[in-house]
Design brief:
single chain; 1116 residues; alpha+beta; 19-stranded mixed beta sheet; 4-stranded antiparallel beta sheet; 17 helices; 21% strand; globular
């Protein structure tokens, strides 16, 4: 590659206007827009596409990436940890068809689409000022014992066994029984589960409405049908912001301060009538009448925006602890003294411990804290929830907390249509049990709910950092810190001259950082402290390998040397439960993290190593404790050190991202697979794909993203370490007798030479190199010490409540906000890409409920309807690390396929809505890529063998190719904002109560669209262009405009050509590494295996995955 290549800055943004400022009326501008109610009749026609010339989409072509006629294909879902997956699973058959899911809605097909025009958005609503926090948790566990109730509202299924709820797991990590947080479900396929419901499947066909008020009624509200419950023959879904109208002969509902009730009549017909409440506090004016047979259904509408919810109080809840009370009554028969003593203990808790969960489309969005021993609990708990769901109702599920799980009390269901019409709903609602009747006479729940559509959320209209008043991501634990600096890294090392020179704005040149060299230098120069967290830390790893004077230092030797100099060196490493060192007998563990080996190395030194298991709280059920300890991990990767601040002062700097300081991570942008086996990687071979001998096999190249933070935000990374250390080091057993247990941590505030966060040097906001940085986490109160002890205080620190845990899930919040604020393009590199399972066409209740894929798809659909360009580029590994034929890997690929399918179908429907389906393909807006390399043999390569065995090792040696493993966890938005850290895009990393993660979001205030009104060309632009230069092997002018159709099609064509070279039987040297992900996406958005490439080259395994029995929480 030409080391002297000076790349000019791009031209100004060619699209006019560059920002959609005029699309939305500003708050209080006086611009009022009529917002027609659902089914209001004629809608204004949508304006025709722009009259300007649209590039015609090329005709279907021959070859593996042609677009064949429409076909219907089913798809998969996914997630996992940083390490490779166990590859000891038996290989699946070539094709495993997923079991049918007969009770799900039919898959999309073009003839069934109906599209409506979109009027102007309603006037802005006043903002709700609360201390709530974004929340989006599934908390779902899908293999539950019969005595553990689930959390979603009740629903009936005659085909429950066709789902994947199999208690047996092929995972070697452990077979964990998991309690489901979804509501009780009944299946005739489970003979051990007694029926909880009346036979209503046939009765649903006889549901209708009546407005007659012939007789008094009892408080009731409709049972909570899940997203999967089909009560009409041809249910349709709508991708736009307004309600969908149907031509089906369904009875239309009118909700005017009303909620509905269900009852079974004497004739066996299910009765449904609206009720009108004249008093918000007395919801008792309901009518139940006999009706004639007719079809009825609630409307499925798109909720996209924010839900502001306050769960206030409940009244007259039933006593669910009747067993406890019965035991107490039994002891009343004992002699007086004994009876009074026992009663004194039992009377402490003799009734329900209620809490409420908020569910939409089967996904749990929020949960209140548990109030003990109270049938009239008062929560007054507020939530601000981002939503992107097709749903008919919002469900509030009331449950009783128990030691072994929880008991279902009842559900309140509020129709989404009512929320659309009224926008703000505040009332007492009756709580219905599984039979659709009041769980107890007078049992009600007080709820306030307000919906703000995405069109009215002005924070998302002008991109990132628009103006000095921009406050970053709201409602997070750590605030936006101004005036820092950031270094962005790609891979562990970038040799000088490896990548082309990039010119930025104002004649500046982009500097390619050298991550591990900078970490080595920072550790070497530390004088007070070195704090390291890691999923894996290996003492034998060498951080510097191209400098003979330093290449002999291992990480362990360097840390020992610094500790001997008086530097406080603390290591906080995940304790792999499968690795043990007992009486001299050592096991490496399934994940091969070297945790026991590293602790043993530092045992007799002043370096303190704390192996930290991932544990659940004592108040969790036994099932939950076992699941958390076996499946989930501590996944953060940070290095915090002190550095020179001038004037004999020290400051704090921090490194974070996706790189663990362990084996297999050192790599360069060349990503050699054979040529460095005897040099840079002579003592660092890593490739968990193969089982057995690996002599002469290619190494697994490693691509990752990392960063260095200098400034106030670095102190937040330090706080994260301190909070985790105090929790992990908390003494147990006899060690509790020690007066102090935090002596290992330095008290920064007591050290005058170390500047505090308020005194840390800051860069002026007018400085072109100034950065504003915010730290985000996925973590819960079982892993940190500083969270409030009382769950009711969680909103004061912008935390969310689990049932018995406080949760910081600000990483998910940051991703959602950045995607919503995007105006031009999104570029993602991530180890996994699984989510929004509530909107899949199958397996909606698997629990991968993070919003990220759905938000990206809706962003593209929004831009299509506005006739604006937008593009999303997503780079993922070719397959999850490990054996690609293994059960866990195949399940992850299956979930990943499901996620892709959902996104492409959403985009295709938007194209049809505006009549652009012939001019454009979904791949003109969204494309998935992976990375791979192939090296031709040369004279110095000794990997050739006379004969190649017909197995993965032999074929890999013969064909001299292998994937480049994408371990990155980052996103770039509009070349103005970057998120980077340890979190994968899956439920494990985003939920907050599973894997612990850390990330940062940052931007340069002088390089935003709002500041420039054109494409910013600061450090983030240089970072993206540097990554693309690494992946493509060169740069072109069109790459400076990622949103343009020219760029999208050019990058896709290069990826397709690179894939053909990678998959070819001819061994040739690859210059570019970016490969089009090997699936076929037709013009209708259907994702299928690529013809002729249904399995991965050399190593096997279905590219679109297989539905094999495996623990769901392991793979999502």
């Amino acid at each position: 590659m030409d080391n002297q290549h000076n790349y000019p800055p791009p031209s100004s943004y060619p699209y006019n206007p560059p920002y959609g400022y005029n699309q939305y009326p500003p708050p209080n501008s006086g611009a009022q827009h009529a917002y027609p109610p659902p089914n209001s009749g004629a809608q204004p026609a949508y304006p025709p596409p722009n009259s300007g010339a649209q590039p015609a989409y090329p005709q279907p072509q021959s070859g593996p990436y042609g677009y064949p006629p429409y076909s219907h294909y089913q798809n998969p879902y996914t997630t996992s940890h940083s390490g490779h997956l166990n590859y000891l699973y038996p290989s699946p058959p070539p094709q495993v068809e997923p079991p049918p899911a007969t009770h799900h809605p039919p898959e999309y097909s073009p003839p069934s689409y109906q599209y409506n025009a979109y009027p102007s958005p309603p006037p802005p609503q006043p903002a709700l000022h609360t201390h709530g926090s974004f929340q989006y948790n599934s908390f779902g566990y899908h293999q539950q014992p019969p005595d553990v109730q689930s959390e979603a509202p009740p629903r009936v299924s005659s085909d429950y066994s066709n789902h994947h709820h199999n208690q047996d797991s092929a995972s070697s990590i452990g077979n964990s029984s998991a309690s489901s947080e979804a509501p009780p479900r009944v299946s005739s396929d489970y003979p051990g589960y007694p029926s909880l419901y009346p036979p209503i499947d046939d009765q649903l066909a006889n549901v209708s409405l009546s407005e007659h008020q012939a007789r008094p009624s009892v408080p009731a509200s409709p049972p909570a049908p899940s997203f999967d419950l089909v009560v009409a023959p041809h249910q349709k879904f709508h991708s736009g912001p307004l309600p969908m109208t149907n031509n089906e002969p369904w009875v239309k509902h009118e909700f005017s301060n009303s909620f509905s009730s269900w009852e079974t009549s004497s004739t066996g017909k299910l009765l449904y009538s609206p009720s009108v409440s004249s008093n918000a506090s007395s919801p008792s004016h309901m009518q139940l009448v006999k009706i004639s047979s007719s079809k009825t259904s609630l409307k499925y509408l798109l909720l996209h925006g924010n839900l502001d919810i306050e769960i206030k109080e409940a009244k007259n809840l039933p006593n669910m602890d009747m067993f406890h009370k019965t035991i107490g009554d039994m002891f009343n028969k004992l002699p007086g003294n004994m009876s009074s003593k026992i009663e004194g203990q039992l009377n402490r808790k003799i009734t329900s411990d209620p809490y409420v969960s908020v569910l939409i489309a089967g996904a749990t969005l929020a949960r209140t804290y548990v109030i003990s021993n109270d049938e009239n609990p008062v929560w007054m708990q507020k939530f601000i929830l981002p939503v992107a769901h097709h749903a008919a109702e919002v469900h509030f599920v009331v449950k009783d907390n128990d030691i072994v799980g929880s008991q279902y009390i009842g559900t309140v269901s509020i129709p989404v249509e009512r929320i659309y019409e009224e926008r703000e709903v505040h009332d007492f609602f009756p709580i219905l049990n599984a039979s659709g009747k009041p769980c107890k006479a007078g049992a009600v729940l007080s709820v306030w709910i307000k919906y703000t559509p995405i069109e009215q959320l002005s924070i998302y209209h002008n991109g990132i950092g628009a103006g000095p008043e921009y406050m970053g991501v709201p409602y997070t634990y750590f605030p936006l810190r101004r005036g820092g600096t950031v270094n962005l890294y790609q891979d562990a090392h970038v040799p000088d001259g490896c990548l082309p020179n990039l010119m930025l704005e104002n004649g500046m040149q982009y500097m390619h950082g050298q991550c591990w060299r900078d970490i080595f230098d920072a550790i070497s120069r530390a004088r007070r402290l070195i704090y390291i967290t890691g999923w894996s830390v290996w003492h034998k790893v060498k951080l510097v390998r191209d400098d003979n004077s330093l290449s002999e230092y291992t990480l362990g030797e360097l840390l020992k040397l610094k500790s001997q100099e008086g530097v406080r060196v603390l290591l906080l490493v995940w304790d792999d439960p499968t690795s043990r060192s007992i009486l001299g007998y050592k096991t490496d563990g399934v994940m091969q993290t070297h945790d026991e080996e590293t602790r043993s190395f530092f045992k007799h030194s002043s370096v303190q190593v704390l192996l930290c298991p991932r544990v659940a709280g004592k108040r969790h059920s036994w099932v939950k404790q076992r699941e958390v300890g076996v499946i989930y991990t501590h996944h953060q990767k940070t290095v915090v050190v002190d550095a020179d601040a001038g004037n004999n002062k020290r400051k704090i700097i921090a490194f974070l991202g996706g790189l663990d300081l362990c084996d297999g991570r050192y790599d360069t942008p060349d990503h050699h697979i054979f040529r460095t086996l005897q040099t840079l990687h002579a003592d660092d071979y890593h490739n968990p794909t193969y089982a057995g001998t690996v002599t002469g096999c290619p190494r697994e190249p490693w691509h990752d993203l990392h960063c260095k933070i200098d400034g106030p935000a670095a102190y937040d990374v330090l706080s994260n370490f301190e909070e985790r250390w105090l929790k992990a080091a908390k003494p147990r057993g006899i060690k509790k007798l020690k007066i102090s247990y935090d002596d290992a941590l330095l008290r920064i505030e007591r050290m005058p030479d170390i500047l505090g966060i308020c005194d840390a040097p800051c860069v002026s906001e007018n400085d072109p190199e100034c950065w504003h940085v915010q730290v985000f986490r996925s973590i819960d109160s079982n892993s940190v010490k500083s969270f409030p002890k009382e769950p009711k205080d969680c909103t004061k620190r912008n935390l969310m409540c689990g049932k018995n845990v406080l949760i910081d899930m600000s990483i998910h919040t940051a991703y959602v906000k950045a995607i919503r604020a995007a105006q031009h393009f999104i570029y993602i590199e991530n180890q996994y890409f699984i989510g929004s399972s509530y909107n899949w066409n199958q397996y909606k209740d698997v629990g991968a409920n993070n919003l990220i894929p759905m938000e990206i798809a809706l962003k593209i659909a929004e831009k299509i309807r506005a006739h604006e360009r937008f593009a999303a580029y997503i780079v993922i590994p070719m397959w999850p690390e490990g054996n690609p034929t293994g059960a866990a890997t195949q399940r992850i690929l299956f979930w990943q396929h499901k996620t892709m399918q959902m996104m492409y179908e959403t985009i295709y429907k938007a194209l049809v809505e505006v009549g652009l389906e012939d001019a454009h393909s979904p791949q003109d807006y969204l494309n998935f890529y992976c990375l791979g390399n192939r090296e031709a043999p040369d004279g110095g390569d000794s990997s050739d063998t006379p004969t190649a065995a017909n197995n993965p090792q032999g074929l890999s040696r013969k064909n001299r190719r292998f994937m480049i493993y994408v371990h990155s966890k980052g996103m770039i938005v509009d070349d103005e904002y970057v998120i980077l850290g340890s979190a994968n895009i899956n439920q494990r990393s985003m939920e907050g109560s599973r894997d612990t993660e850390i990330a940062m979001g940052a931007y340069q205030p002088q390089y935003t669209w709002g500041k420039r009104l054109s494409s910013p060309q600061g450090q983030i632009y240089g970072y993206r262009m540097s990554l693309w230069a690494e992946h493509l092997g060169f740069l072109e002018e069109c790459l400076t405009r990622p949103e343009s159709l020219e760029c999208v099609r050019r990058v896709r064509a290069l990826g397709e050509a690179n894939w053909e070279q990678f998959a070819s039987p001819d061994v040739t040297e690859m210059k570019g590494h970016l490969l089009k992900y090997p699936v076929e996406v037709d013009r209708q958005g259907k994702v299928k295996p690529l013809p002729g490439h249904e399995t991965f080259p050399d190593v096997g395994g279905n590219i679109t995955g297989s539905f094999l029995a495996i623990q769901e929480n392991l793979t999502i």
